[in-house]
Amino acid sequence: MKRREAPRTPERREEEKDHVPEIEGRDGAAVPVLEARAVSKVFGGTVALDHVDLSLRAGEIHALLGENGAGKSTLTRILCGVHRPDTGELRVDGAVVDFHTPAAAQEHDIAILHQEPSLFGDLEVAENVFVGRQPKHGRPPRIDRRAMRAEAAALLAELGAELDPAARVADLSLAEAQLVEMAGALSRRARVLIVDEPTAALTPGEVGDLFRVLRGLRDRGVAILFIGHRLEEIFALADRITVLRDGRFVDSRAAADHDEASLIRAMVGRDVAALHVRTRVEPGEPLLQVRGLARAGVFEAVDLDLRSGEIVGLAGLVGAGRTEVARAVFGIDRRDAGTVELAGERLRTPQQAMRAGLAFVPEDRQREGVAVELPIAANVALPILGRVAFHGWLRPGRERALAREWGERLRLKARDVEQAPRELSGGNQQKVVLAKWLATRPRVLILDEPTRGVDVGAKVEIHRLIDELAAAGMAILLISSDLPEVLALSDRVLVMREGRVTAALHHAEATPERVMQAATAEAQAVAA
Amino acid sequence: MSSRAARRFAFSHEAFTVVLLVVAVVVVTQLSPYFLDAQNFSQIATDSLEIGLIALAMTPLIVVREIDLSVGSTLGLAAVVFGELASHDVPLLAAVLATVATGALAGLLNGLLVTRFGLSSIVVTLGTMALFRGLANAIVGDQTITTLPDSFTASDTRYAIGTLVTIPHVLFALAALAAALLLHRSTVGRRIFFAGSSPDVATHSGVRVDRLKVGLFVASGTLAAIAALFMTSRLQSVRADTGSGLELLVLTVVLLGGADIRGGRGTIFGTLVALALVGVVRSGMALGDLPDQARVAVVGGLLLLSICAGVAIEALRRRAAERRTTRRIRGGAELRPTPTT
Ligand SMILES: Nc1ncnc2c1ncn2[C@@H]1O[C@H](COP(=O)(O)OP(=O)(O)OP(=O)(O)O)[C@@H](O)[C@H]1O
Ligand SMILES: [Mg+2]
């Protein structure tokens, strides 16, 4: 080893950040850093964008809102060079540009955090953060692993994430993977940062950290385009709000000029209540009984009782073991101890669970929820293929009818049921997963983040649906990082921390404070 | 066919293989006057049977993201087992059943190694490829068994329907039909596609992915053993190296037929078209008296071509879709005028 380039330490990064040129600020007088004018995009028969305008100014957080399938992600993909617009033009600092590739957009310092993390699962965290730009040393240059990890650790710390830079990305949770992407975008010191639904899988604490980072970037003059479906977040964060509906531009104004109702009207075109109110019924006979469930090193001594007509919320921080419990209950993961019974019947495998009437809507829709390359109809029919088929032979007509029926009930926005879910917007993919499991007409339903990435209107729809299902006698276990959602829907709330159930609260006593206290370590709770 | 379905076919790998087949037929017809002849076609069918039979199992295996490199050796081992039994006066039916069982067991071993230990099927079947061949060698050494019962060796011609269609032809046609129905029209086939396209989704939906895979490996071994019977009756002799190198031909056929080596995609129809293509090319090489080494090179070239074609076709389809889009936009039919703000 001859010469060693000084690693880019946090101090050095600070210096480089100071080189961002002075900008007029947030008064709107300056030329937009990035502008889209009359941009359109058509996919096959779908008009995703229809002459949309958007202008991003330096030092502003600009929220882009709209229902699922409104065209938000498509617009961001055009802004970062993944798609080319069919009409219209893009301008950077007022000059027309043509991004043939994502690399061209990166040259203009535009960074993006995609809706679904796109990382290299087999590589370590640090490598993913610096993919293509790893710090080198020596001659011939080799990757300076130590500097890379140190720098990645610094970036992650800046995000408030306690992640091992040497960990394999495939072993991370969705939220953690998102933080890795965020660190990658940060490391590019972009002038424009596009974040497509970054908070959907994060807990309130993580959202707070993320917002702190985003505000810090804004104050240093970065233009930020933020996409999200949680209105309270939008109001907390955004300076300007642009709304799209069905691929069309609706309006763009200062956040202060909007209130919740006006924003929803702009997005949906009608008034929608923001939270569904639960119709509570007297719980019926016990259905699901979990006793002493444990998996070494993941969770232990978990007891669960679900009665017919009852909704039990499972709250906790990301990594508390909620998803792992659900997987073990359904029989996907090995259990080290404990039993699972549905109406007295012992369940061990997913097949037994499904036959007994248990359904599990998993959290990671792209990996576990839908096969994105296969038709919607085939996806919806898969769990009940035996029932839809005739003695083992497929009946495509019935599959399509089934998919259409549930697609309509959930207001799925798709060209037809033969379309591949890969072409659907994120929220609509989620609806396919829901359709698939509701079509099994389960007695007990486990929902893991069922409204992640779902728009306001559809979210209320899903809440109403959950309520209806419970009223009709279904038992529901609701895992959600959306605390208001858990509190509004649940009859009882269980809180998990580090693999243990730390609180079981009746809905009357379940307040945000008590839940958060049980979810975080006592030490922190005392300090707070 | 709707226009969208037509378009999907036009840009499919299968369509590309059909075009290649037509080109190959035209070229070989020009090169040799003996090619365009019913008897020659019957011969091509006979020569392609064993490859085709094994390819019927290899196609779903590739769809489910696995591969069986041991098929040639399994065929060899099965042929040797049959030769030993049949030449020692074991009743024909018993010998046939023992042969098929040998193939099934070989497949079961592959399947269990892959699923129980989570090993890559390339590694496992590369190992068993050597293992099965070694066993065949241990049983017969370098001798050639030719003392097979007449009733068996002549089955090819004796039970022929007319002069062109033989019993093995008919059996293969039935097997191909069954494979196509199972893969594309049955719930098992549907689960195979899910297991190959999104394994985690399949597991979460109650598909027993491992069981499917074991079943397909058993099918692969079984069909290799049946192919061994066909080959033995055709060649009227058995040696330890019977069927060696067959895996290359089978894989060429399956990949040329449009099955995606990354899983999730493949059709029996494509495999059959590719089988015909490889049959025609091999016939052309035989008529042209190409040396053996050159033939292997040609097959290898075809394999490479099929893999590159997959990528090129994908790119073409994307470009065509983009052009259609642009045309529609320029026409402005579905777009509203720019909103004024
Ligand atoms: N590659 C594609 N092929 C075909 N259609 C597509 C493709 N990408 C997007 N679409 C369609 O374009 C429309 C807009 O999708 P987009 O992903 O931009 O929505 P979105 O506003 O991001 O929604 P969400 O809030 O659910 O993420 C949808 O109707 C979608 O089905
Ligand atoms: Mg989106």
What is the general shape of chain B? globular
CATH class of chain B: Mainly Alpha
Average pLDDT metric of chain A: 86
How many helical stretches of chain A? 20
Q: Distance between the terminal alpha carbons of chain B, to the nearest Å? A: 45 Å
Instruction: Kindly report the name of the CATH homologous superfamily of the largest domain in chain A.
Output: P-loop containing nucleotide triphosphate hydrolases
Largest sheet of chain A: 6 strands, mixed
| Total beta-strand segments of chain A | 22
Mean pLDDT of chain B: 88
Order of helices and strands of chain B: HHHHHHHHHHHHHHH
Can you list the strand order of the major beta sheet of chain A? 6-9-10-3-11-12
Main sheet summary of chain B: none
Termini separation of chain A comes to 49 Å
User: What's the CATH C level of the largest domain in chain A?
Assistant: Alpha Beta
| Estimated share of beta-strand residues of chain A | 15-25%
Describe this structure in words.
The complex is a heterodimer of chains A (528) and B (341). By secondary structure, chain A is of the alpha/beta class. Chain A has 20 helices and 22 strands. Chain A folds into three domains: 10-19 and 30-268, Rossmann fold (3-Layer(aba) Sandwich); 274-357 and 442-528, Rossmann fold (3-Layer(aba) Sandwich), CATH 3.40.50.300; 370-439, no CATH class. Chain A is 35% helix and 24% strand. In chain A, the strands form five sheets. A six-stranded mixed beta sheet of chain A has the order 6-9-10-3-11-12, with helices on both faces. Chain A has a six-stranded mixed beta sheet with strand order 18-19-20-15-21-22, with helices on both faces. With 341 residues, chain B is an all-alpha fold. Chain B has one domain: ABC transporter involved in vitamin B12 uptake, BtuC (Orthogonal Bundle), CATH 1.10.3470. Chain B has helices at 3-10, 13-31, 38-63, 71-87, 92-116, 121-140, 150-153, 155-158, 167-185, 187-197, 199-204, 209-235, 246-256, 268-287, 292-331. Chain B starts with a helix and ends in a 10-residue tail after the last helix. The interface between A and B is large, with 42 and 34 residues. The structure holds adenosine-5'-triphosphate and magnesium ion (MG). Magnesium ion binds next to helix 2 of chain A.
